[in-house]
Amino acid sequence: MLNVVMISTGEEVLYGDITDTNAAWLSAQFFEQGFAMTRRVTVGDDYEALAKEIEMCSLSADIVIVNGGLGPTSDDLTAASAAMAANVGLEQSDAWIAEMKAKYQQLGRVMPAANLKQAMLPEGAELIDNPVGTACGFIMQLNRAWLFFTPGVPSEFKVMVKEQILPRLQAMFNVTDSKVCHRLYTYGLSESSISDLFQVLTLPDGYCLGYRSSLPFIEIKLFAPQDDIRSTALLSQMTELLGDNIVGEGESLLDSIANLLPKDATLALSEQSSGGFAINWLQDVSSLSARLAQSEVMTDRVDEHACVEELSTLIALRAQRLHLHSSATYTLTTGPSLIDGGFMLGLTTPDGCWCQQLMFKRQYRNYDRRWIISTVLFDMLRRYLQGKEVFGCYESLDRVVSERL
Amino acid sequence: MLNVVMISTGEEVLYGDITDTNAAWLSAQFFEQGFAMTRRVTVGDDYEALAKEIEMCSLSADIVIVNGGLGPTSDDLTAASAAMAANVGLEQSDAWIAEMKAKYQQLGRVMPAANLKQAMLPEGAELIDNPVGTACGFIMQLNRAWLFFTPGVPSEFKVMVKEQILPRLQAMFNVTDSKVCHRLYTYGLSESSISDLFQVLTLPDGYCLGYRSSLPFIEIKLFAPQDDIRSTALLSQMTELLGDNIVGEGESLLDSIANLLPKDATLALSEQSSGGFAINWLQDVSSLSARLAQSEVMTDRVDEHACVEELSTLIALRAQRLHLHSSATYTLTTGPSLIDGGFMLGLTTPDGCWCQQLMFKRQYRNYDRRWIISTVLFDMLRRYLQGKEVFGCYESLDRVVSERL
């Protein structure tokens, strides 16, 4: 069993200014590839503390990934700490200086002097290219461990891990228990309800389940041995149990909608309580944004005097008006927030119009509310396109009204 | 200087199924209170590894917060590991059993036998009440350190830290070196350019600088000793150096716009290349969304034949049309993307209309493009409201056209 350690650096992580998403991402990637983490450590921008940490880890670990502290500023000390841990000096990488100068030239700029620092690597270290930034990574061997030093900027970190570090590790270590990860994206069930449902599952040896709850979805991961026939049966059993709460198999809600949409079908959106979240979200899937016929975002002011029935009529009317105006195949509408923490949704299709009013069962901040409203809105379309019941069951929401016109 | 360590436990954290938000939250809380983290460690549900980690940390740390592994299930091993580390046995806390039974009785249920495990604490440990759950915390003294054991459920963890652990720490340790953090939010300068600018700064003892680059902004943090008069001079020197690239002092771009907006001023938005990002972003600041008079999101299709001049006229016309229709005080407009990776922006005010076309100097994914476009759009308004030059300098963007009408 390999001993794999990650060292995250930086006061911004250690003092809680940012959540260490790189750590979670790397841990998940490594787990899938058979390099499950043994331990993770976070230290600040402290030259000696980091050097000590690197040395300590190098004594017991086979693989150490050090993340962050490769920037040009005074609080980026990782290269110096690595040199101290290995008891060597720093030497300038002319290759990387040339690389950085070229990058700046492309931007029509001269490289700031501060960047020279990013080319100072521990003596004997091997450079790792950073195709998207000025912070190169590097590799050192110290005591028992192979040390990989990586930049903190998530986009740069991920490219480096995927394109250079993982392939290298696979070549260096003969990993037997690398797994395939099958993903099911669900919406509407809580994690505990799902694990209750899954009581009946029996996982064969070498199989394991993982849940990743990223509001508002819960991603279910089945880790299975490479090309094992039993996974098919297991997956269909899981799919059976989750029913129409599955918004996507191996793909997100919006991606599955994009794949379900008939050719030439168009979309129109009218948002109020979702405040533009839906339209902005939709832009992330180009094949959906290309279908957009019309979009508006109204100010979400509630008429204090409007009663629930009036509001239902309102959303129905608005959905149909938009349908006429935009002549889009499908129109999606979010009505105003209800005073006591609810919202309205409308879906118009060639087969008719569905409207519902839902209430939040607990408090959410505004951003999360808009996210949930948009999710249920798109889920109505997903359900319609799959021929499922358009009004789904959502544990965190109460349905007040639902009408089909 | 206190040595403060957090140990997070659990495979779901170590394998990346969940991001360790407890760690970021605790770190921020502790930093504010003068208990800045020295180090954080994450280990899995491994009885011996956790015991070893606890013992190691207890040798060098003054305060150790252990989080997670206090549940009723077989993979919750923290109490046993703590006992092993301290070389003591486990003893049952009758007080906590009574407490748990009472909690279940309130729910009209009988306590499952599995919960008995949660009352087994290391000999000599002091119980910490958990008002919202069945996992009690506990305190032990081992070697140099005070060890605090806390439940992993975020809501339970946070209540315990706030109501019981922090007050206790403040009573136990006379914290002198608690720091204030002054924040400057900038846009338009790269981190390396900023550090070049700051070469001339001399930081007095006890001061330190931190940078946090969260696209598209760079947050600059000045950590200063409590009520130290020198920080005022230092801050104004930094403000001087950064000039109009500061989008907010101690507050974000949108918050400063909200504070700069004249009473009764209203906003109208027409988006194309920003695809609804701006309107959705604006919803996060209620005092801004309340000012919204009108908003539309057009599909971002480019007329291949339109030349740059035509497009400039287009955005100017659209900005002014919107200004008339909405009769809003300020209208913000993003025009279509140019074929070769650029975008147009328009700002209309009572003093006239500003339009500009900008080009990206490098590739961004669609989401980041929309974010940057929206940022520059709002930055135009911020600059106008501050009486600064509306057309700012942005390192990552080239200006193609700029007109004032």
UniProtKB/TrEMBL annotation, chains A, B:
Q: What Gene3D superfamilies does UniProt report for this protein, alphabetically?
A: MoaB/Mog-like domain
Q: Which SMART domains match?
A: MoCF_biosynth
Query: What InterPro entries would the database entry show?
Result: CinA, Competence-induced_CinA, MoaB/Mog-like_dom_sf, MoaB/Mog_dom
Q: Give start and end of each MoaB/Mog domain.
A: 5-172
- SUPFAM superfamilies annotated for this entry? Molybdenum cofactor biosynthesis proteins
Give the superkingdom in one word. Bacteria
Q: Which HAMAP family match?
A: CinA_B (MF_00226_B)
**What is the similarity comment for this entry?**
Belongs to the CinA family.
Q: Which NCBIfam families match?
A: cinA_nterm, molyb_syn
Its recorded name reads CinA-like protein
Organism, scientific name: Photobacterium kishitanii
